[in-house]
Design goal:
The protein has 20 helices and 13 strands. By secondary structure, the protein is an alpha/beta fold. The chain binds arginine (ARG).
Length: 588
């Protein structure tokens, strides 16, 4: 494994050195390098430095150019030109580009991408549906974004502990368990249930028990007593509650499987997992004075959090009837994640509508000393999935959209496209590709907009072959694979003395930026920047492919070098898509 410094960083270093050589009192001035259309890179930092030194920027730029030497002794820079008020336009040599790409290509799946300098331990809370409830379109986002962030962070060397904080606790389980005690056969499939069956019987029990709960006072009383039994750990009650959890897991796994998100049983630690800590959490908060009793409830107050009436609106950790809520669980989970799991970052991929909850929970944990300055707590809060009308996505009947229906529809649409395009695929292959294309389309649409923003769920657009879609990227990948197959005996090979065309240079420089993009994406938890990178990669490849014949290039060496560019593009697309959780079929 050998990480490859990008050309941008190498050029940056050379410039910084030249600056210090030209102006000894430059300090650690930053040349401020960025990609540019005029040349390969442009340095803008000289202006600020000249201003600081009260000198002439163009003169200073000239000095820096001189101290770089021409021709560049290192063979990196082809041309350095002073432009405008004192910018430097920098062109690197073809050789430097090809050499860098060759080093990336020689680094297997890592493609020269460096590990993060300071890797730590992140506990990531994502893919957290609720027991006995249907997964809806909101659970798409916490699963898909969370899964991508996991892959990306792991790729940069971060130690990741996954936590699926499923909603498996609380008062409604008193009602459900009590119903099942009274109707014992209703969740029995002798263990052979599939996801759909499991969910429909859970739905049935949920509805039936709710009807009883709302209409029968005596049942209501029994259900309330059941909650107490549950929280106290009564074995019979727990055994029945476990049935709900098991049944729900059958269903969850069927959805996650369709969504192509791998979830492990040991990472599912739901709200119930913190039950034994809740009383202690409350006691600690009360004893330290972080929380106070107010009308019987245990509350934490914040100066800047007020209700619509202007009255303070506290975080309630324990209700006046003694019950513990969502906040007590999350605070206990923080203690577990910091002190037992030794996390230095807590990341929550949760709907932005829960931002106030997390703000208060994090602040409470800071006051209690559970979150110290060495531990970061971040909510990656995502926006709402909207329908075509721009309102939160609902069915025509106004109900929340079942995630599974949405996925099935995407797969169906994608299969139609695959079938139209495929000449030689078997039915089985069409089904497989249809799933990879359909699920990829849904994931990509979700990941390619900044997580915090809302987006419109538009299947027609998602499965389109043109534009910023995963289908476009998957086709680019498959097209390259087909070229590589056609090349037969001729293998991709870098020729470092090859002169490059503008399209080849543009593609090459973009390929060289993969590592930096991944680093930035990981630091900012911003998968949409990886999606944008990949889309641009596919676009640059398309231009290259239009302008530069590959198998019919002028010389055998050029054929090999262009195949090399094709191959590295494909591998970068494949790796980048994998980090987003999206498949790249070899043929489409
Ligand atoms: N189960 C919750 C929901 O469906 C999300 C849980 C988020 N995680 C947490 N630690 N509170 O909305």
């Amino acid at each position: 494994m050998a990480s490859v410094p990008s050309l941008a960083s190498t050029v940056h270093q050379r410039l910084a050195d030249a600056l210090t050589a030209a102006v000894p009192d430059a300090g650690s001035a930053d040349p401020l390098l960025r990609r540019s259309d005029r040349a390969d890179f442009q340095a803008n930092g000289i202006l600020a430095l000249a201003k600081k030194l009260k000198g002439n920027p163009r003169e200073l730029a000239g000095k820096v150019t001189d101290s770089l030497g021409s021709p560049d002794p290192a063979g990196l820079l082809a041309d350095v030109e002073v432009s405008g008020p004192g910018f430097l336009n920098i062109t690197v040599t073809d050789r430097a580009i090809t050499e860098n790409l060759a080093a990336r290509a020689a680094d297997g799946e890592r493609l020269g991408v460096p590990l993060a300098e300071h890797a730590g331990t992140t506990v990531i809370d994502y893919a957290q549906p609720n027991v006995a409830k249907e997964m809806h379109v909101g659970h798409l986002r916490n699963s898909v974004i969370g899964d991508a962030v996991v892959q990306i962070l792991e790729f940069t060397g971060e130690r990741i502990i996954r936590r699926h904080h499923i909603g498996d606790w609380g008062t409604q389980f008193g009602m459900l368990v009590q119903y099942l005690v009274e109707h014992p056969s209703e969740l029995d499939h002798s263990g052979s249930a599939d996801g759909e069956t499991a969910m429909s019987s859970l739905n049935h029990v949920y509805k039936a028990s709710k009807v009883l709960f709302d209409s029968d006072e005596e049942f209501k009383t029994r259900a309330r007593r059941r909650v107490v039994d549950l929280q106290a750990g009564d074995p019979e009650t727990l055994a029945i509650w476990q049935k709900f959890v098991d049944e729900s897991k059958i269903y969850f796994y069927s959805v996650f499987d369709k969504l192509d998100v791998a979830i492990r049983d040991e990472d599912i630690v739901g709200e119930s997992g913190y039950n034994d800590m809740l009383a202690e959490t409350c006691r600690m908060l009360e004893e330290s004075g972080v929380a106070v009793r107010s009308n019987g409830a245990l509350c934490v107050f914040f100066d800047d959090v007020k209700g619509p009436d202007g009255q303070p609106s506290p975080l309630i950790v324990q209700k006046s009837d003694g019950g513990f809520g969502y906040a007590a669980t999350d605070l206990s989970a923080i203690r577990d994640r910091v002190f037992n799991l030794k996390a230095d970052t807590l990341l929550y991929v949760v709907d932005a509508r829960q931002s106030l909850h997390f703000k208060m929970v994090f602040e409470t944990a800071r006051r209690a000393g559970w979150l110290t300055e060495n531990v970061r707590a971040v909510q990656l809060g995502f926006g709402t999935v909207l329908g075509k009308d721009g309102k939160p996505f609902k069915t025509r009947e106004g109900e929340t959209v079942r995630l599974i229906d949405l996925l099935d529809e995407a797969i169906e649409r994608a299969s139609t496209i695959v079938r139209e395009k495929a000449q030689d695929l078997s039915e089985e292959e069409i089904a497989e590709r249809g799933a990879q294309v359909g699920i990829g389309a849904v994931k990509y649409a979700d990941l390619s907009t900044s997580a915090t923003r809302d987006y419109k769920f538009d299947l027609d657009q998602m499965v389109s072959l043109n534009g910023d879609t995963s289908v476009y990227l998957q086709y680019a990948y498959a097209r390259i694979q087909s070229i590589l197959r056609k090349a037969g005996e001729v293998a991709p090979r870098a020729h470092t003395d090859m002169e490059l065309t503008p399209a080849e240079r543009a593609l090459g420089l973009h390929l060289d930026g993969f590592g930096e993009t991944v680093g930035e994406v990981a630091r900012e938890y911003a998968p949409h920047k990886l999606a944008a990178y990949l889309y641009q990669l596919a676009s640059l490849y398309t231009t290259f492919y239009d302008k530069c014949p590959v198998l019919k290039a002028d010389t055998p060496a050029q054929v090999e070098n262009r195949l090399f560019l094709c191959d590295l593009t494909a591998r970068t697309l494949h790796q980048g898509m994998a980090l987003l959780g999206i498949r790249t079929p070899e043929r489409l």
